[in-house]
Each structure stands twice: as C-alpha cells, then as structure tokens.
Amino acid sequence: MKVLAIGQDEVRRLLPMGECIEVMAEALAALGSGDGLNPLRSLLFLPDRTGLLGMMPSYLGTPAAIGIKVVTVFPGNHGTPFDSHQGAVLLFEVDHGSLLAVVEASEITAIRTAAVSGLATRLLAREEASSLALLGSGVQARTHLEAMLAVRPVSEVRVWSRSREHAEAFAATAAARHGIGVTAVASAQEAVSPADLVCTTTAAAEPILAGEWLAAGTHVNAVGSSIPTARELDSAAVVRSRLFVDRRESTLNEAGDFLFPQAEGAIDENHIQAEIGELLLGQHSGRSSPDEITLFKSLGLAVEDLAAAHYVYRQALATGAGTPVPFTVDLGDSRP
C-alpha cells in the first residue's frame, strides 16, 4: 500500500480559503451534533520552554476519518525563515485503520485557523463591518486578512507588530496582493480604536489588547494564545465581550485569555455564550444587538485539522497531486 505525501505548496493550492471556511463549518457542526471526537491536546514542553510538541487526535463521522496532528510550536521562530508551527497531519481510514496520507501541517494550521475565524466573523460580526485591525504581522496575520476579506466588506486595514519593520513589510505586501489600503501603525491602540473587526495573531504571553480600546459593535477574533499561561487580551476586553468559543472543554482547560480573568473572579464559566457549532446548529442566536462586543476565542481543534487534511487528500486524489510513497505491504487498496 502507498501513502500519499502532500507538501506545503500543494496544501496551499488545494485548500482555498473560501472552501476551507465551508469545510470548517461542516466539521464544527458535526462536532456540535456529536458526530465527532476531539480529546484535549497533549503537550510536551522542552525543558527550557522554548518550544513544545503537540499531539492532537480526532475522529469525524462525516466525512469518516480518524487522524492526528503532530506539530512543534516554537514561538521564537516569528520573524525567521521557520514557521512557528511545523509538523504533519496523519490521515487514516476508519474501516481497517490504514494510513492514507501524511499532510504538511503548518499550512493546514495557517489556513484552517483563519478559516474558523472567518466562520466566526461571518456568524457574529455586524454585516457592514469593514475596518480591520491586525495585531501581529506573521503567517496568521496573512491568512486572517484573507479570511476577513472572504466574509466581510473590508476596505481598510491597520496592522501593528512589535517590529515596525515587519509591520511595514506586511502592509506593503498585503496592499499589493489584495488591492486595498493596508497601513502599518505605531501602536496596538492606534490599530484597534477605529476598528470594527480585530484579529489578534501574536505570540504574546502578556496582553497586547486592552478592553478600553474596543468600540461598541466590534467583533474580536483572539487567536495567538493557545496555552493556559499566556494571553493576548486583558481581563477588561473579555469582561466587556460576549464570549464564543470553538469548544467549551478546551477553553476551560487551555485558554489563558479565559483562565486569567476567571482566576481573578471577573468571569465564570457562564460567560461562555456558545460554541461555534451551536451557532451553526441554530442552538444559539449569536449577536443580539449592533452595539455589543463579540469575542471569538480560538484554540484550534484537532477535528479542524482532520477535516482540512481529509479535504486536501480528496482533492489530491482528484487532481493527481501528492507523492505516493511505499509504506506497508500492499494487502489491497483500502482508500475510501
């Protein structure tokens, strides 16, 4: 039997943002309806805490698949030639447990994370929201700009980064690519205060977004932090917002943006309004007024990686992409 190896450039080509948003909607609705399994991730930190190995298994009933993402996370790679997230998604079929594909994970992560934020924005942001603040200028800023453009009429973008040089380079590249105004600004507050869409995509361990900067009606996608000991938002930002999450269990165990204000007594579990899957299934109405601030706390779920990898695999089979690699004794083709 041969396993299909699918590289980064092929993932990028086979997983367009608009299509990935729909794949994420199907996956999160499946998880919300009980047609998926998503255990909490396991993390192995290096002794000096400069990096970690994350292991994220999952199952989906539709499309039928099991898999695991194994990925390293090295925040110090920001601003270097290396992605902060590197690894692979291993995709298996469910009848015999055969390995079908090894899919490059950094591009899967980059696209599906932004696609879920795009989905949350489509469900929660005001229809006319058009002014975007990007905090961070790395890979996730790039894909989040693409996702926001896919779901809202974004006409102006302000980007802030701890490195002004990186922010200016990002602004120039993004403006040329998308044909819209993208401006690098000197402070996070300068980016956020005029915005009605905010995406935080940094490696910050301490808050870089203050609640007092958020205007009425703003929607925030908080993306950068995915461990209990780091957060991008201060407690006021979370308290002022109606909070929506990808998954409650993950938020209560892994989300520093939630756990810090909870430990301070500023919020409790009831501050979580709903999961995105519950919005998709019509179990919660989402935004209730034009003036409220909505917050989507993204942690990234294994079922999102699995659904994206499965979609990429099917597209690769259909187009002849990927590289077949002899892997085990051929007992017959068990590919679905």
The major β-sheet equals: 8 strands, mixed
DSSP helical segment count:
11
How many whole angstroms does the radius of gyration measure?
A: 19 Å
Strand content of the residues, in percent?
15-25%
Helical fraction? 25-40%
Write a structural description.
This protein has helices at 8-14, 17-32, 105-124, 139-151, 164-178, 188-192, 235-240, 248-254, 256-263, 276-280, 302-319, and strands at residues 2-6, 36-37, 42-45, 52-60, 65-73, 85-92, 99-104, 131-135, 156-160, 181-184, 197-200, 219-222, 241-245, 272-275, 293-297, 323-326. It has 336 residues and is α/β, with parallel strands linked by helices. It folds into two domains: 2-109 and 302-326, ornithine cyclodeaminase, domain 1 (2-Layer Sandwich), CATH 3.30.1780.10; 124-297, 3-Layer(aba) Sandwich (Rossmann fold). Strands 1, 2, 3, 4, 5, 6, 7 and 16 form an eight-stranded mixed beta sheet that branches. Strands 10-9-8-11-12-15-13-14 form an eight-stranded parallel beta sheet. Strand 4 (52-60) and strand 5 form a beta hairpin. The radius of gyration is 19 Å and the shape is globular. It starts with a strand and ends in a 10-residue tail after the last strand. The mean pLDDT is 95.
Topology:
Layout lengths: L1 E5 L1 H7 L2 H16 L3 E2 L4 E4 L6 E9 L4 E9 L11 E8 L6 E6 H20 L6 E5 L3 H13 L4 E5 L3 H15 L2 E4 L3 H5 L4 E4 L18 E4 L12 H6 E5 L2 H7 L1 H8 L8 E4 H5 L12 E5 L4 H18 L3 E4 L10
Parallel strand pairs: 1-7, 8-9, 8-11, 9-10, 11-12, 12-15, 13-14, 13-15
Antiparallel strand pairs: 1-16, 2-4, 3-4, 4-5, 5-6, 6-7
